[in-house]
Amino acid sequence: MNADARWDDFDPALYVEKNYSRVLSVDETIMTVVRAHFSDHFRRRSGRSVHGIDVGAGANLYPALSMLPWCDRITLLDRSKSNLEYLRQQIVGHDDGWESFWRKLCLDDAYAGMPGGPWARLSEVARVEQGDILQPVDRPERWQTGTMFFVAESISTSITEFHRAVRHFLETLTPGAPFAAAFMEHSQGYWVGDTWFPACDVSQAEISASIKRVTDSVRTYRIGGPGEVRPGYTSIILACGFR
Ligand SMILES: C[S@@+](CC[C@H](N)C(=O)[O-])C[C@H]1O[C@@H](n2cnc3c(N)ncnc32)[C@H](O)[C@@H]1O
Fold this sequence. Notes:
This protein is of the alpha/beta class. It has helices at residues 12-19, 25-43, 62-67, 81-92, 97-105, 109-112, 118-125, 159-171, 204-212; strands at 50-55, 71-78, 126-130, 145-149, 178-185, 190-192, 195-197, 218-223, 235-242. The strands form 2 sheets. Strands 3-2-1-4-5-9-8 form a 7-stranded mixed β-sheet, sandwiched between helices. One of its GO terms (biological process) is methylation.
């Protein structure tokens, strides 16, 4: 179960070194699809800024960066104290490595043309918040765009908790909100340094069906093959859609 894992021992520096010290081709493909999904949506919809949320933000800034051109607030939600501390540090003084992720997003003019660049804007709009996506969504606030990367299947072995995380993520969004969610298919769990974290073994069909309990407006993509990021999964599944 999610509550049994050692989330406060999650080491963000080791996680970033292993996963995000350079832009892997799978991340480049994810950013290409997500960038187009958000940009196409918001291009047709001029006017006021929206509130975005990245659920289980952990030690990854690129989901938040992918929403940045359109948001005047971005909530970075996580349950791990160490990851929350990492996020607080990064929004006031980011590591250089994240610049290469931003440069990939800048292949679209909405990102490239952001006045003043991303970093001052990120520290202005980001709100780091401790929270548990498995708890009931009992607050009135809703977000108009959202991301959840490698979270629902990567926080527990329980299929019930997997479905609950997907449902709660989608329920935090307003109807019609564009979202992007990434998953490791058939994940067997993962190490961060010497600490083991659980995963739920789900297929692309199960991921898609879980999202479709809330919205039919979703498309899933298979990105990369087994072992490209680490051993013990079969592919990355990216889901882009509208709540
Ligand atoms: C595999 S990491 C993914 C991190 C990041 N989103 C990424 O793309 O690399 C899973 C994240 O979920 C967070 N997490 C675990 N349980 C959670 C919960 N119940 N609610 C919110 N976040 C949780 C962890 O602290 C960790 O940051």
